[in-house]
Amino acid sequence: MTFMEKEARLTGHESWGSYHRLRIFAPEVAKRASPGQFVMIRINESYLPLLRRPFSLHHRLGEEIEIFFKVVGQGTAQLAAKKEGDIIDILGPLGRGFSLPAMAEESPALLIAGGRGIAPFLFLAHELRRLGQRLIIFYGGKTKEDLPLAPELEALGFDLRLSTEDGCLGFRGMTTELLARELPFLSPARFYVCGPEAMLAEVARISRQWQIPAEFSLEARMGCGFGVCYGCVWPIRRGEKIEWTRICLEGPVFPGEAIAWEKKK
Ligand SMILES: Cc1cc2nc3c(=O)[nH]c(=O)nc-3n(C[C@H](O)[C@H](O)[C@H](O)COP(=O)(O)OP(=O)(O)OC[C@H]3O[C@@H](n4cnc5c(N)ncnc54)[C@H](O)[C@@H]3O)c2cc1C
Ligand code: FES
What we know:
Elements: E1 3-16, E2 19-25, H1 27-32, E3 38-42, E4 53-56, E5 59-61, E6 64-70, H2 74-80, E7 87-94, E8 109-114, H3 121-130, E9 135-141, H4 150-155, E10 159-164, E11 171-172, H5 175-186, E12 190-194, H6 197-210, E13 214-217, E14 233-238, E15 241-246, H7 247-250, E16 253-255
Parallel strand pairs: 8-9, 8-12, 9-10, 10-11, 12-13
Antiparallel strand pairs: 1-2, 1-7, 2-6, 3-4, 3-7, 5-6, 13-16, 14-15
The structure holds flavin-adenine dinucleotide and FE2/S2 (inorganic) cluster.
């Protein structure tokens, strides 16, 4: 069930350069949230930006939720200017999130994040840990500034594999290169993936090669977030057929084998 919290109060704001984390008092959304779902945020009372913007549920803390985002345009810049005590209008939780194992599995869960793709994984990592599931977080970016949550995840005791393209933190290279290098020691495993499209496609290739089950959090421009505008379609397999599917309703998380990557080229 989806809730509109028109008067949700901001209770915290942290920032690291262009990355921000907002904590929001939203009890109805928090109560129903699961990892991988998202919220649509109306950023302003005015018409700029006109449309709500989608953000993954980064974490849930009692009656509060958190979002974690990178400033990339007008909407995120305005959101980054919000202060504790400000009121925002949110709709959620929306979509279908990651599937959690019924009980802890012996093989590790590998959470693979590129840059702001780390957003849904704090919530997921806590839920997996609660189940007693062994997990490892692969967290990569162009440079150190793209991994602002690394110290916190480390302090929380999560097993991390960091990578930066310029080599200033962790492995030098792409997350997918580090994953391919470590996989012989970690497989069999289960992948949870969120990040730029090129990274998702490469992890999909690796998961097919190693026959590792994988779930991908997909992104698209979203006009509504609840199935009305058809702005968010991805090519999804249904048996022999491929259908352009609204990821806001049926996703944003899909199993790798359902995604027709070849149609995205
Ligand atoms: C389900 C879902 C969950 C998301 N969760 C997060 C999150 O947790 N943290 C986060 O930082 N971002 C997340 N995003 C992306 C976020 O919604 C966009 O970055 C944001 O809407 C951009 O708004 P803007 O007004 O700042 O940028 P705009 O001015 O609208 O666009 C700026 C630039 O970003 C590009 N862009 C905008 N939206 C997207 C998109 N969805 N996919 C690819 N490129 C885009 C545009 O093409 C343009 O180049 C999510 C997107 C989806 C669909
Ligand atoms: S965002 Fe409107 S149909 Fe998906």
